[in-house]
Amino acid sequence: MKLPRRRFLHLAAGAIAPSMASSVAQAQDHPTPTASGARELPLADGLAGYAHGLRYEDLDDATIERVKTHVIDTIGCGVAAWDERPVRICRDVALSVSGPATILGTDRRTTTELAAFVNGAAFRYLDFNDTYVGRFAVHPSDTIAACLAVAEAERASARELITAIVIAYEVNCRLVDAFDIATRGWDPPVVGLPAVALAVGRLMKLGPDRLTHAVSLAINDHIPLAQTRVGALSDWKGLAAAEAGRNAVFAAGLSRAGLTGPAPIFEGSSGFFHQVAGPTTVDIEAFGRRGVQFRIHRCSLKPYPAVIYTQTAVVAAIEIAKEVGSLDRISAIEIATTRRGYQRTGSEPEKWSPKTRETADHSLPYITARAMFDGDITNETFAPDKFRDPAILAFMQKITVAEDPALTARVGGAVPTRMTAILADGRRIMREVDHAPGFADRPMSRDEVESKFRGNVGRRWPKQRTDAILRALWALERTEDISLLLGALGPQK
């Protein structure tokens, strides 16, 4: 349904009428009349209105600082993953095509879609980039690669880039709050599709109608299966979100050229709610704007390169190991985690005998054992000789994992883990941890963000170069040429 122009302008001004502020899932192909007789705005149209209406001037200094923090953290993760085999494969594919968008770490350019894909693959591959936990967990920074690629191609300003990133984060996180697609067998990058389509569509300066079609085109044919994260995990675990970004960029480009998408994509009788998410209400009036905090402030930076559900377990494991002293004294370890933590990291036999890096960084038994043995979890933790170590594999057999519903109930405000080591003499040593360093309630300082960044890039860049790039990234809002900034991340001349 094409809405009257006055309704789009109303949304663009930021004053969303109550009857237009939300979308309720129904098996229908037309908006539902409200009690007042007005027709409820389809969700895709409401999201488009939000994305079109948000302005850089609506962002406070704290939000701009958060954007820069997450961009720095994400780029550091991408540089660290530059030589990983799956990332090299993606880069080789991208290098075969020329275009306007820079490939991270090179002086070459490819299409915006492939740049979104290959750079997104690097950003995500080590499972070290940021996380948001709502009804399920996502990596909102998976959207940054697409925003950078399109901003460069469109010669967008730094302020336009920052605004687009805020839009991507807000839509991504608010949709995670609204429904749980993971319990129905779908993969979390689903919510990145509309988030990226709206963010890059905004960089393309699409109007509300074209933004709506971009959302529809991005979603309709690109719903990923959660098989990506089940059993023995493959290379694709670290690449699925990058593929969602690629698809969404392509969809926005098609919409700009004039193609229309299936509508209403969310509420239709065969639409997203009916087929994928189940009945849901999304309140766009609650989205971040001037005077209303943006969801990027509730996103967490990871202190360890592993799935979010293991982060607090690492903290607990290191503390217990220090108290125990000799690990030979431990006869058993009981780990209580959340429902999703159990499903993703401790419910399958593959997690006690990981054969791939992707399985190892999603294995609560492995990560716990390695943290106790080494006192840390780093990118080197997931080398094949590490997760095939007979001593570690034997120690992992002492570990059991179970869900505690009380911990599950605390998810969102926390990602809790309770760990109990039972010693040979019967003594029990317990730690319960809700927040790891870098979580939203324990945010990293600038110095801590820089320390993580330096740890990620240190093998590739000398200190002087790292210092210069950090200065440039902390001044992102004053950047005059995004292409030059991205070029600075490539090979030194």
As a percent range, the share of strand residues is: 5-15%
The total count of helices amounts to 21
Largest sheet: 4 strands, mixed
Q: Supply the helix-strand structural class.
A: alpha+beta
Mean pLDDT: 92
Strand order, sheet with most strands: 8-7-9-10
Helix content: 40-55%
What do you see in this structure?
The protein has a four-stranded mixed β-sheet. A two-stranded antiparallel ribbon has the order 1-6. A two-stranded antiparallel ribbon has the order 2-3. Mean pLDDT is 92; it is low at 1-28 and 32-38. The protein starts with a helix and ends in a 6-residue tail after the last helix. The longest helix is centred in the middle third of the chain and has 21 residues, at 158-178. It has 493 residues and is of the alpha+beta class. Strand 2 (101-102) and strand 3 form a beta hairpin. The chain has helices at residues 5-12, 43-53, 61-80, 85-95, 112-125, 144-153, 158-178, 192-203, 208-220, 240-257, 272-277, 311-324, 339-345, 357-360, 364-374, 384-387, 390-396, 405-408, 446-457, 463-474, 482-487, and strands spanning 22-24, 101-102, 109-110, 132-133, 137-138, 281-283, 330-337, 399-403, 417-423, 428-433. The radius of gyration is 23 Å and the shape is globular.
